[in-house]
Write a structure and sequence with these properties.
With 916 residues, this protein is of the alpha/beta class. Among the domains are: 35 residues, no CATH class; 194 residues, Alpha-Beta Complex (Isoleucyl-tRNA Synthetase, domain 2), CATH 3.90.740.10; 151 residues, Isoleucyl-tRNA Synthetase, Domain 1, CATH 1.10.730; 63 residues, Roll (Ubiquitin-like (UB roll)), CATH 3.10.20. It contains 30 helices and 36 strands. Helix 21 crosses helix 22 and helix 27 runs antiparallel to helix 28. The protein is globular and about 105 Å long. The relative contact order is 0.11. The protein starts with 7 loop residues before the first helix and ends with a strand. The chain binds one RNA strand of 86 nucleotides through helix 9, strand 15, strand 19, helix 13 and strand 30.
Length: 916
RNA sequence: GCCGCUGUGGCGAAAUGGCAGACGCAGGGGACUUAAAAUCCCCAGAUCGCAAGAUCGUGCGGGUUCAAGUCCCGCCAGCGGCACCA
């Protein structure tokens, strides 16, 4: 272990305790009674007052993605984002904003449940232990969270409201006319819904939360179904276990209804392009047409296909249905029936993995039936093949092998005809397999000709023709599927639902009343799913069966449920009368109408002002949360259409070997070890100094030593060497009295309360300027280097004016808050004045007049190459600059024998002489 | 295959179209020390040169410009996402 640069081991716990005791970082809501002595109240003249929306300063909501408290403890990746948001929170507080900066626990999750299955220990117990460990680790980093708002998704007082929000979804439907969710009571029933049972079936089919019997991703190893998003290459995202398709009764959320709004509203928020692009890809909007084909010889059978290339309709030489398509059985001719059935069995048995891995080789069989191409009356064969997915579009396609890669491969394998209908723009490009836009050819009938039309126009023409004949219509399709929302697990939110039978014996579901919330999972002896595949909750017979004969839903919600709305609970975390109070919601989520100009370059936005987390949540969490938020918005429970206005992904931190950190590689860095040796301030500073927040970057413990040395220099900038070394000697003798000895350490004698002159103020103010600008741009690494430059300069001063050092401590405070607080309080003590709270001291402003130079160093180039740097008065005119450059000593030899063609003078910057 | 991001010293990185490599790590030299650690000062892209200095240099090839790491066109490599989505 290296020599301790400064007594961080005493300083850091001291200030952490101070902040906790003083509730320094408590964020105040409208309606809160502010204490008389709280520094926020003093700064904003609200001491002893009841805060009102109008009297509170403008809000700023800075949020971290809350962690899953795993047994492994904190990872160095967690504090990266947390430090960035903490720095920004402290900065905004100093600017005068009312900052909401909370932390909590995404504590439902599989590991605690798997541990319970193995040991029988209740997951709540494991979860509590892990939360305690995470709390200790996160607190030791000195983040300025408002811990009074801490929440855990596993807390019944939290998931009561998760269940309540589920009920809002259950009791709502999406009205396509208004494009919004509305209470289910606004639903109008079709005329053929006569009986209550019919109306119920219709209603249940419209709810945003509904039951589906569709095939799902069943993971036998985990004993649960998984959402499509949780299956990677046919294996579970968690654990990498095989996943098979299996039809089961499941709860679904109708996220597809929101596809268009989820897509369109991306344009209203400030996320990176790459992240928006990932969401756009996931939503997968495509424009095209539905086209209906009659089936030859079967009067009332028709097959509708979705295509993005209706312009190629004349090139359709066969059709393909997915093996699961509803019409397959009725179309298939007797002599093909055996082959078709065999193929259906084959396809059903193929896992997703096999379907994708073996994608190169197309498979399929002929049904024996033919369809009629509506444009030219041609008979084309109908095949089934598993390269057509049942779940996308209509589950059926028209195959245009000439202009679709997959159809081309299939046609080649099964010897089906290939007919050109698009001419590539470049005559040399072969038309076979050409899928880009071109010009329509061979596309004429008696009634219609597309020939000669560019692809885009051909699409319009054919779509109009199809619509006029009632054979098809233009439409939009999305890849996004409804969200499979139930899991066969114990450690999740139970659904607030029960099942009943009506007079006919038909099973139906019903919501529990709000008064029944929270529905708490019953204790079990065994947490495994039952032998027949029912969820663990089914084991608790006396919980499942209610006195009136109805039975409880035994599925639980997925882990995403709790994280879909936690950012709203923070606004009013202890509310017992609603998921969030409306005053709190509108204060923190609405953009202030006329914010006083606290900052030239920042104004609070609607929703969360800054949300920082990893890219792993780019589609799942962020899409789900946006969806819930929009539903809550439609139903009038929140005031903005989007939850997270600005979102930044922190980059992954790799191990010292440049590989992803993992136990098996043995390159995991444990924050506890770093903290012990270098302290929290050095750890925070290093994580920010490594490079840009968004970049992937490797860990290097020697780099921590570097910023640690910088903090040591800051300490020595202020501290008297003699009393410091005496302190160290006394600590060696009696370490138990270290804290007491520390109070005897004095400021350096050359730290003096005298006026600062430009010699001191110039470097200070250029540092203020750089740090302030870099904070706004989240460029923490360059802000730190600006502070290093200042310290390198200031440490050489013979006399160190307090007036030049105090603002520096304010700049340092967001980054290294413990050290800054300690030196700040020493400085004030030595002046014999009371110490104002560093956290609420107004952020320093730089004075541009101090940064004005009286002479400038101007590079002189000849033909773009640097030849000399000349020193000129700052006021020099262009003509003077040019003259000085032309007679500069080292420039002359490069001009000798040449003709000067042109001299470019960039005022205050550079002179370039073009000479030949 | 498609989409997105990134390529700069030994390493992490910096640079509104205007002095490439700030700041830091590792390295070298010196001061202090009996010695080491720590601290302080100095050097430090590559090549050639005793030096002054010169030439080359931001993944590769072109282009625009008085001037390109930065803008444009075409490649290559790495990372991330999607992937039979019709």
């Amino acid at each position: 272990m290296a020599r301790r640069q400064y007594p961080f081991h005493l300083i850091e716990p001291k200030w952490q305790q101070h902040w906790e005791a003083e509730q320094t970082f408590r964020a105040w809501n409208p309606g809160d009674q502010l204490p008389a002595a709280h520094p926020f109240a003093l700064r904003h003249s609200l001491a002893s007052a009841v805060a009102r929306k109008e009297s509170l300063p403008p809000k700023c909501y800075i949020l971290d993605m809350f962690p899953y408290p795993s047994g492994a403890g904190l990872h160095v990746g967690h504090p990266e984002g947390y430090t960035a948001t903490d720095i920004l929170s402290r900065y905004r507080r100093a600017q005068g904003f009312n900052v909401l900066h909370p932390m909590g626990w995404d504590s439902f999750g599989l590991p605690a449940e798997q541990y319970a299955v193995r040991t029988g220990q209740h997951p709540r117990k494991t979860t509590e232990q892990n939360i305690a460990n995470f709390t200790r680790q996160i607190r030791s980093l000195g983040f300025s969270y408002d811990w009074s708002r801490e929440l855990a998704t596993t807390d019944p007082e939290y998931f009561r409201w998760t269940q309540w929000i589920f009920l809002q979804l259950y009791h709502a439907w999406f009205n396509p006319e208004t494009q919004r969710a509305e209470p289910i009571s606004t639903l109008t029933y079709p005329a053929d819904c006569q009986t209550e049972a019919q109306r119920r079936t219709f209603r249940d089919g419209k709810r945003l939360a509904y039951v589906s019997e569709a095939p799902v991703n069943w993971c036998p190893e985990l004993g649960t179904v998984l959402a499509n998003e949780e299956v990677i290459d046919g294996k579970s995202e968690v654990g990498g276990f095989p996943v098979i398709r299996k039809p089961m009764r499941q709860w679904m959320l109708r996220i597809t209804a929101y596809a268009e709004r989820l897509l369109a509203d991306l344009d209203t928020i400030d996320w990176t392009d790459s992240l928006k692009e990932m969401q756009r890809n996931w939503i997968g909007k495509s424009q095209g047409a539905l086209v209906t084909f009659a089936v030859a010889g079967v009067a009332d059978a028709a097959i509708t296909v979705f295509t993005t290339r209706p312009d190629t309709l004349f090139g359709a030489t066969y059709m393909v249905l997915s093996p699961e398509h509803a019409l397959v059985a009725s179309l298939t001719t007797p002599d093909q029936a055996a082959a078709v059935r065999e193929y259906q069995t084959f396809a059903a048995g193929r896992s997703d993995l096999e379907r994708t891995e073996l994608a190169k080789e197309k498979t399929g069989v002929f049904t024996g039936a033919f369809a009629i191409n509506p444009v030219n009356g041609e008979r084309i064969p109908i095949w089934i093949a598993d390269y057509v997915l049942a779940s996308y579009g209509t589950g059926a396609i028209m195959a245009v092998p000439a202009h679709d890669t997959r159809d081309f491969e299939f046609a080649a394998k099964f010897n089906l005809p290939v007919r050109q209908v698009v001419q590539p723009p470049d005559a040399k490009t072969p038309w076979q397999g050409f899928t880009d836009p071109g010009t329509a050819v061979n596309s004429s009938s008696a009634e219609l000709s597309l020939d000669g039309l560019p692809t885009a126009e051909a699409k319009r023409a054919i779509t109009a023709w199809l619509e006029s004949r009632n054979l098809g219509r233009g439409t939009t399709n999305y890849k996004l599927r409804d969200w499979l929302f139930s899991r066969q697990r114990y450690w999740g939110e139970p659904f607030p639902l029960i099942w009943k039978r009506d007079a006919d014996g038909t099973l139906y579901h019903e919501a529990l009343p709000e008064s029944a919330l929270p529905v708490i999972p019953p204790p079990l002896d065994d947490y495994k799913p039952t032998a027949d595949g029912r969820p663990p909750l089914a084991r608790a017979a006396d919980w499942v069966e209610l006195p009136d004969g109805s039975i409880r839903e035994t599925n639980t919600m997925p882990q995403w449920a709790g994280s879909c709305w936690y950012y709203l609970r923070y606004l009013d975390a202890r509310s017992s009368s609603g998921f969030v109070g409306s005053d709190a919601e509108s204060y923190w989520m609405k953009a202030p109408e006329a914010a006083p100009t606290l900052s030239a370059s920042f104004r609070p936005s609607p929703g969360v002002d800054l949300y920082v987390g990893g890219t792993e949540h780019a589609v799942l969490h962020l899409l789900y949360a946006r969806f819930w938020h929009k539903v809550l918005f439609d139903l009038g429970h929140v005031s903005t259409p989007e939850p997270f206005h600005r979102l930044v992904n922190q980059g992954l931190i790799l191990g010292e070997d440049n590989q992803k950190m993992s136990k098996s590689r043995g390159n995991v860095v444990n924050p506890d070890d770093i903290l012990k040796e270098f302290g929290a301030d050095a750890f925070r500073l290093y994580e920010m100094f490594m490079g840009p927040l968004q970049d992937v970057k490797p860990w290097n413990t020697q780099g921590v030593a570097g910023v640690y040395k910088f903090l040591g220099r800051v300490w020595r900038l202020f501290i008297d060497e003699a009393t410091e070394s005496e302190f160290e000697q006394r600590c060696t003798v009696d370490p138990s009295r270290s804290a007491e000895f520390l109070t005897e350490v004095r400021l350096a004698p050359n730290v003096q309360d005298i006026p600062a002159d430009p010699f001191h103020l110039k470097p200070l103010h250029s540092c203020i300027k750089k740090v302030t600008e870099d904070l706004e741009g989240l460029r923490f690494n360059t802000a730190i280097s600006a502070m290093m430059i200042f310290v390198n300069e200031a440490i050489a001063w013979d006399v160190k004016p307090v007036a030049a050092l105090k603002p520096f401590l304010q700049l340092l405070a967001p980054f290294a808050p413990h050290l800054a607080e300690d030196l700040w309080s020493r400085l004030h003590q030595s002046l014999g004045v009371s110490t104002p709270s560093l956290s609420y001291e107004p952020w320093p402003r730089f004075d541009p007049t101090l940064l004005v130079e009286d002479t400038l160093e101007i590079p002189v180039q000849v033909n773009g190459k640097l030849r000399e740097v000349i020193r000129v008065p700052a006021a020099a005119t262009n003509a003077e600059l040019e003259a000085a450059a032309l007679k500069a000593e080292k420039v002359l030899p490069f001009l000798a024998g040449k003709t000067i063609k042109k001299v470019i003078v960039v005022p205050r910057k550079l002179v370039n002489i073009a000479a030949v």
